[in-house]
Inverse folding.
């Protein structure tokens, strides 16, 4: 199994590196089922522009190869149908308001884990990357009365919040790292004991978690925050 976590961003120059490996994995899965082109579940939870966001994901993924898109777009607060994951060779969960995604995807989390364990690759874009973790860092910009990141990165939450996510990996994920200044939220959450440590992914960058370990591709870096005796140890993984 492989889990592909994209930190956001829409640069066409980076798209082949960011999405290529995922589409190839899905293609291999589809060929095993007798399909010429893989069938990708593309799940979007947004109010007002869900179809537009889904098409942007299709365009970005197309840089990695040809596929058939099985799009499910629902408004925030709505339930996702179980058919969103029916007979697919890859699962893509898009971006938007992370708390809304986590709430909508929660009823399907067990099925997603089952399919990924069976070899179906997963790609999370922005919010879809954050909720892939067992302890999903879904937003917030303050811990107590202390600001720990820009308010614009809050995801409409005041207090930094960690919820049960899909559970595909055991470290928390933050996104838009360098672009939104969310690295400081990850560090503060680790220092406060809200998470055991985590990774923050830059835009136009993918972190692939698979049997071969961690692989970073694209234009940016992945920031790692690990609790230590003297505070939090911060380092980067580059492409």
């Amino acid at each position: 199994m492989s889990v592909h976590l994209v930190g956001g961003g829409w640069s066409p120059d980076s798209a082949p590196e960011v999405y290529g490996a995922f589409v190839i994995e899905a293609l291999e899965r589809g060929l095993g089922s007798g399909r010429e082109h893989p069938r990708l579940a593309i799940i979007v939870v947004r109010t007002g522009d869900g179809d537009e966001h889904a098409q942007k994901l299709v365009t970005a993924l197309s840089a990695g190869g040809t596929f058939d898109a099985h799009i499910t777009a629902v408004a925030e607060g709505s339930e996702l149908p179980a058919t969103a994951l029916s007979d697919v060779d890859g699962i893509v969960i898009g971006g938007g308001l992370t708390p809304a995604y986590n709430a909508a995807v929660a009823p399907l989390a067990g099925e997603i884990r089952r399919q990924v364990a069976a070899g179906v690759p997963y790609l999370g874009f922005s919010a879809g990357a954050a909720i892939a973790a067992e302890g999903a860092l879904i937003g917030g910009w303050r811990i107590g009365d202390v600001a720990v990141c820009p308010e614009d990165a809050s995801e409409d939450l005041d207090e930094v919040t960690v919820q049960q996510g899909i559970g595909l990996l055991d470290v928390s994920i933050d996104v838009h790292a360098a672009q939104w200044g969310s690295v400081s939220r990850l560090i503060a959450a680790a220092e406060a004991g809200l998470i055991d440590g985590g990774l923050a992914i830059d835009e136009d960058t993918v972190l692939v978690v698979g049997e071969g370990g961690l692989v970073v591709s694209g234009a940016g870096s992945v920031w790692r925050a690990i609790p230590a005796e003297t505070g939090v140890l911060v380092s980067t993984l580059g492409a």
